[in-house]
Specification:
InterPro entries: NA-bd_OB-fold, NfeD2_TM
Radius of gyration: 28 Å
Protein name: Putative membrane protein
Structural class: alpha+beta
Strand order of the largest sheet: 3-4-5-7-6
Pfam families: NfeD_TM
Largest sheet: 5 strands, mixed, barrel
Strand content: 15-25%
Number of helices: 4
Distance between the termini: 80 Å
């Protein structure tokens, strides 16, 4: 079959190459277009993946089978939709939630317990290590009550100001 005066295989192959190039460009420059498909199923990654899967399946079926081109297009579209759904469920959604789980805010540090790495002098600064499931955070610290806090002490984070945590000595009940 011919479309626009070109064999359909050439169109599938050209589309495959073009969409592959767009995917590579999206990997490098995708942060600039980050909000385009935010919160919808029209994610640019899914659209580019659909076009790539469709053209790849169409090209393979055109080259290996003797089916009608309309039937091949329909089969390729079904395959592309299924692969797109699998890509979204098993790759994109877990990646999005994993990225969010590593993020912390200054407000989320309040009320947590840490260990003093570098002693905190009176009216001075030290360093506190805060451990959680996703890793460790080391932050500069000062005493909330302007008292000396020794290395290895457990401290409670009271507030965060300008990237410095204010801590008090923590005594377990």
């Amino acid at each position: 079959m011919e479309l626009f005066g070109l064999p359909i295989q050439t169109i599938y192959l050209s589309t495959l190459i073009f969409s592959g190039i767009l995917i590579i460009l999206y990997v490098f420059f995708g942060d600039m277009a980050d909000g385009i498909g935010e919160g919808s199923f029209l994610n640019p990654v899914l659209i580019l993946a659909f076009i790539t899967f469709l053209s790849a399946a169409g090209y393979i079926f055109e080259m290996t089978t003797t089916l009608n081109s309309a039937v091949i297009l329909l089969i390729a579209a079904v395959i592309a939709v299924l692969l797109d759904i699998l890509l979204n469920i098993f790759v994109l959604i877990p990646l999005a939630s994993a990225e969010e789980s590593l993020v912390y805010t200054d407000e989320s540090l309040r009320g947590r317990v840490g260990t003093v790495l570098i002693p905190i002098p009176e009216n001075g600064f030290g360093e506190v290590l805060i451990e959680n499931i996703s890793g460790r955070i080391s932050k500069p610290a000062s005493s909330y009550e302007n008292t000396v806090i020794a290395e290895g002490s457990k401290v409670l984070i009271v507030e965060v100001a300008n990237g410095v945590i204010k801590v008090i000595d923590y005594k377990e009940l």
